[in-house]
Automatic annotation (TrEMBL):
One Pfam family of this chain: NTP_transferase
Keywords for this protein: Nucleotidyltransferase, Transferase
Protein name: Glucose-1-phosphate cytidylyltransferase
Limits of the Nucleotidyl transferase domain: 2-204
Keyword Metal-binding assigned: no
Gene Ontology molecular functions: glucose-1-phosphate cytidylyltransferase activity
InterPro entries recorded: G1P_cyt_trans, G1P_cyt_trans-like, NTP_transferase_dom, Nucleotide-diphossugar_trans
SUPFAM superfamilies noted in UniProt: Nucleotide-diphospho-sugar transferases
Any GO BP: O antigen biosynthetic process
Length: 267
């Protein structure tokens, strides 16, 4: 299976960092946050990635093109120009980087890479970490009669809220970033880790389509959007304060999102 990472946004709320690089390359513990996200997938056997680039996509491409040399020990023969690798990176990932447009919206970015997606795929944003079990998420999705499963979490109310049918796993309403007093506190919200059937991309009209609006709203109204409830750790990196909180967890040796890394994907 493939995992699609949305990595093209401007990251304006983290402008202290994103004025010179895309948000997925903002570092936690000396590593880009996109690396942390990919480690979580790879720990479950998902190591084929499609990165949807936009703002400063050249830096993302440069990071992965040079990844082997940055992560290896090597000797350079300055006379011949030959490079002898002594220690290769442990990652054996396959990473496809696609320029999906500078101003393309999230839905349009995924639709742009549709030709690369011929089977069920994972989808997430390149700016948040969680200890989601990809194995459990995938198994849950396969039990649902739905085109999309999203991971529902319960952080403080500042995100879009979901209405989940009592005693069921189907989302009956999806509303992104509700107004004050609507969907806060105990509301289930979109945690950003999806499993998607390729046919769900038919709900995306074009490059200006926001995945979290019309496509998910229509899928929910038709009973095609399922909710996988995740009670574990989830943390976005929207602001500098978020980054500092994640840095503190990492430097303190208690980064909860790494707990999922050693778990293999179950068949």
């Amino acid at each position: 299976m493939k995992a699609v990472l949305l990595a093209g946004g401007f990251g304006t709320r983290l402008s202290e960092e994103t004025s010179v690089r895309p948000k997925p390359l903002v570092e936690i513990g000396g590593r880009p946050i996109i690396w942390h996200i990919m480690q979580t997938y790879a720990a479950h056997g998902i190591d084929d990635f499609v990165v949807c680039c936009g703002y400063r996509g050249d830096l993302l491409k440069e990071y992965f093109v040079n990844y082997c040399r940055w992560e290896s020990d090597f000797t350079v023969d300055l006379g011949s120009g030959e490079v002898e690798i002594h220690r290769s990176p442990r990652e054996s990932w396959r990473v496809t980087l696609v320029d999906t447009g500078l101003h393309t919206m999230t839905g349009g970015r995924v639709r742009h890479v549709r030709d690369l997606l011929d089977d069920t795929f994972f989808l997430t944003y390149g700016d948040g970490v969680a200890d989601v079990s990809m194995s459990d998420l995938l198994a849950f999705h396969r039990r649902q009669d739905a085109l999309v499963t999203l991971t529902a979490v319960q952080p403080p109310g500042r995100f879009g809220a979901l209405t989940i049918a009592p005693d069921e796993d189907k989302i009956t309403r999806f509303h992104e970033k509700p107004s004050s007093g609507d969907g806060g506190g105990e509301a289930w919200i979109n945690g950003g880790y999806f499993v998607v059937e390729p046919s769900a991309l038919d709900y995306v009209d074009g490059p200006d389509t926001v995945w979290e609006r019309e496509p998910l709203e229509r899928l929910a109204s038709e009973g095609n959007l399922a909710a996988y409830r995740h009670a574990g750790f989830w943390h976005p990196m929207d602001t500098l304060r978020d980054k500092h909180q994640l840095e503190e967890l990492w430097s303190g040796g208690s980064a909860p999102w790494t707990a999922a890394w050693p778990v293999p994907l179950q068949a």
